[in-house]
Write a structure and sequence with these properties.
Elements: H1 8-15, H2 21-37, H3 45-54, H4 58-66, H5 71-104, H6 108-115, H7 122-138, H8 142-164, H9 166-173, H10 180-193, H11 196-226, H12 243-252
Helix pairs in contact: 1-2, 2-8, 3-5, 8-9, 8-10, 10-11, 11-12
Length: 258
């Protein structure tokens, strides 16, 4: 199989032993983007504009904070991000709060009369709009966006190699299957990128692989549980010692445990 620069990360991931090659790719991307965020991106205006605008999800804030790389860099990112977000919130609040104060000072009779109409009060409208803004900010993350974009490219490459390269297809078929979230991504990618004949063959292969490997890991977890029964105390652990961590990954996708 002739390697190209964009296929190398994919073939390397499928060559590693693990419960999901795509989780291996995702882990490497997350490490790279975390290092980049606390390193070179600090001096790039475009990167700071993105972090000011979108910020980070809870998981990636934790990862950035726990990184030994650059606490000062993280502090500078947070300072400018909060300046941006504070300005946005204050601008929004300044336009809405006067009307809310008026409603707060309403007489009981007038407030009761307003409740009888179908119209939203200014306070109710503010709550809906503010909740929407907060949800948007909570669900935005620069690192998540970068990972999602690159992982979509890796899915495309995986499906292309499976269709065109018999050597990679064998590598794919010999892996231990995929976590359920990446199984979903592969199915969506097959529909997006593959011709119908390849798509049907790929889906058949994928489902057979998943059935086999989900049963395998269920058995390993079952043996892990039996090892706490005194009757099996002297039996070998086999592959079950880390089956809890691997089963969680299989069900939920890449996570930093174990």
């Amino acid at each position: 199989m002739k390697e190209k620069i964009y296929t190398i990360p994919v073939t390397e991931a499928f060559g590693e032993a693990g419960e999901c090659p795509l989780c291996t790719l995702e882990r490497k991307l997350e490490n790279e983007y975390t290092e980049y965020t606390l390193g070179p991106s600090l001096m790039e205006p475009d990167s700071r504009i993105q972090t000011n605008d979108k910020g980070f999800c809870r998981h990636h804030f934790e990862l950035l904070f726990n990184s030994p790389a650059n606490k000062l860099g993280l502090g500078l990112i947070i300072e400018t991000m909060m300046a941006e977000q504070n300005e946005r919130f204050n601008d929004f609040w300044s336009k809405k709060i006067p009307s809310i104060k008026n409603e707060a000072g309403m007489s009981t009779i007038k407030a009761a009369a307003g409740k009888l109409t179908a119209r939203q009060t200014e306070t109710e409208r503010f709550i809906d709009d503010m909740t929407k803004k907060l949800n948007e900010f909570e669900n935005s993350c620069v690192i998540c966006d970068k990972i999602a974009f690159t992982m979509d490219r890796y899915i495309d490459v995986t499906l292309y190699l499976w269709s065109k390269e018999p050597e990679f297809r064998q590598l794919f078929n010999n892996c231990k299957g995929f976590c359920l979230p990446h199984m979903k991504d592969l199915l969506a990618g097959a529909k997006k990128y593959m011709e119908i004949r390849d798509m049907a063959s790929f889906v058949d292969t994928l489902i057979d692989m998943q059935k086999t490997n989900l049963e395998r890991i269920k058995g390993e977890v079952g043996w892990f549980n039996k090892k706490f029964d005194y009757r099996f105390a002297n039996e070998p652990w086999g592959n079950s010692r880390d089956s809890i961590q691997r089963s969680i990954q299989k069900l939920s996708g890449y996570c930093r445990i174990g």
